[in-house]
Automatic annotation (TrEMBL):
One of its GO terms (molecular function) is transferase activity. The keyword Magnesium does not apply. Residues 4-89 form the N-acetyltransferase domain. PROSITE patterns: GNAT_YJDJ. InterPro entries: Acyl_CoA_acyltransferase, Gcn5-rel_NAT, GNAT_YJDJ. This is N-acetyltransferase. It comes from the Bacteria. Keywords: Transferase.
Amino acid sequence: MNIINNVERHRFEAEVDGEVAFVEYQWKQGTIYILHTFVPHVLRGRGLAAQLAVFVLNTIRQEQWPVKIYCPFFKKYIQEHPEYQDLMQP
C-alpha cells in the first residue's frame, strides 16, 4: 500500500481498490494536529487505519514534528503501542 502526504488537502492518503483512506491533519503554530482517521466501509477490517497510523507516527518521529492528537483512533493506537507514547505532548 502506498501512502502519501497530500499537503494541499491536509491529509495522509492511501488508495486501495479505487477507494481512499486518510488521516486528516492541520498545522498550527509549528505543530501538526491529527484530527480524524477515515477508512471507507468497503475497506474496513483490513488494518488500513493501523497502517496509516504507523506511517504517520513514523513520519512525525522522523521529521521531529511537535504533535497534538485529537483523533480517537490515534489516541487508542498510541495507548496500545508504547513505542509511540513518547510522541504525546501534555
